[in-house]
Amino acid sequence: MRGSAMTTMMEEVFEQPAALAGLRKYYSSPGAIPAKALRKLVSRWPPLVVFTGMGSSLFAAYPAQAYLSSQGMRAFVWETAELLHHHLKILRPDTLLVAVSQSGETVEITQLLDRLPEKMGLAAVVNVEASTLARRGKLLLPMMAGQQSTVSTKTYMASVAVLMYLAAAIAGESPRSVTQELIRVIEAQERILDCAEEIAAPAAEFFNQPPYVALMSRGADLASAYQGSLTLKEVVRLGAEAISAAQFRHGPIEIVSPLHRYVIFARQGQRGQRNKTAKFLIRLAEDICSHRGRVLLLTDVPFEDVPDVKLIRVEPLRLFLGTLVDTLHIQLLAHDLALRAGLEPGKFWIAEGVTREE
Fold first, then answer.
1. Is residue 201 part of a domain?
2. With 70 as the cut, is the pLDDT of residue 270 above it?
3. Mean pLDDT of all residues belonging to the chain
4. What is the model's pLDDT at position 353?
5. Are residues 285 and 175 in the same domain?
6. Is there a single domain that holds both residue 206 and residue 117?
7. Domain end marker among 185, 218, 253
8. Is the domain of 27 the same as that of 93?
9. pLDDT at position 273, please?
């Protein structure tokens, strides 16, 4: 995808493997997240981990939360605005608050910092190291994504990766397993980008500017649904909704229509064939098609091609990191759809790169 299609957004999409490679090199050192410094942030170990952010910075935390939960540790993902105005009292001395923000200057984050107790254990995951969040954090974890000029692409990928390194450190594991899986992620991203146009064009033709899109998954891969929905809204101005696949069955399935499109992320992940929810997701795709809905299915599960399903086979990945590949597919789709609609991909018309108004 070169020439006229190489927009600013696409340049940043193509920079993602290199950004992850640089991040991997930095965080592969055990000293990048010092165990002693981490434990000193809270009064009791293991801590209650609360991940907080807005937009992409919030969605990026789902894989790390899933990993910690799988290790028997308490972890929550909380939108910063809701935490700030409605749930602040849950933060206690045994809480490790992990604040994620590309700019480190969004209005909710800066207001939250002003309301935190002096001794609050705060880890700051941030791209701009001169920002308010970076200065106030007691443990700084840089995204190292470089400049992000358009919608969140590199910074989302970097946030997911940094948070997984942090989750491994909290669980007392070495960074080696995360590093090894990131190598596989980077290789998968490079293969996708080598044939980006061939991948994006058929998916865009299948989509054909629908009036409504639902993106669905379960568990850690809800990150892909939420981030994919945000990308389609920001880049293509599509009416895209992220929803838990289970919630979709509780009523919203009534709106299934051949005019709509449904994106389902169905990964087996590290549990392989023991992953029941992957089977539930495949069954949902089949049920939607039985009611004439059209499904874009991203999966590592064996699946025969059927009418009304556009199948994208994805790289099997461990450590809940499938979103680092699946989201790339949605970025390419959104970029192609925007060009077909005569839009400049990734350009904000109303929103701003740094949100400063509540």
1. yes
2. no
3. 95
4. 65
5. no
6. no
7. 185
8. yes
9. 54
Q: Which residue has the tokens 């639902």?
A: 214
- Give domain status of residue 25, yes or no: yes
Q: Cis omega before residue 46 (within 30°)?
A: yes
Range of the domain at 128: 3-185
> How far is the C-alpha of 44 from the C-alpha of 217, rounded, in Å?
34
Whole-prediction pTM: 0.96
Domain at 148, CATH number: 3.40.50.10490
Q: Exposed/middle/buried for 94, CB within 10 Å: 0-12, 13-18, 19+?
A: middle
Please, which residues have CB within 8 angstroms of residue 17's CB and are 6 or more apart in sequence? 186, 189, 190, 193
User: Which amino acid belongs to residue 304?
Assistant: E
**What is the phi-psi region of residue 20: left when phi exceeds 0, alpha when psi lies from -120 to 50, beta otherwise?**
alpha
Distance CA 328, CA 251 (A): 30
Do residue 181 and residue 54 come from a single domain? yes
Q: Which of 160, 185, 210 is the last residue of a domain?
A: 185
Amino acid at 113: L
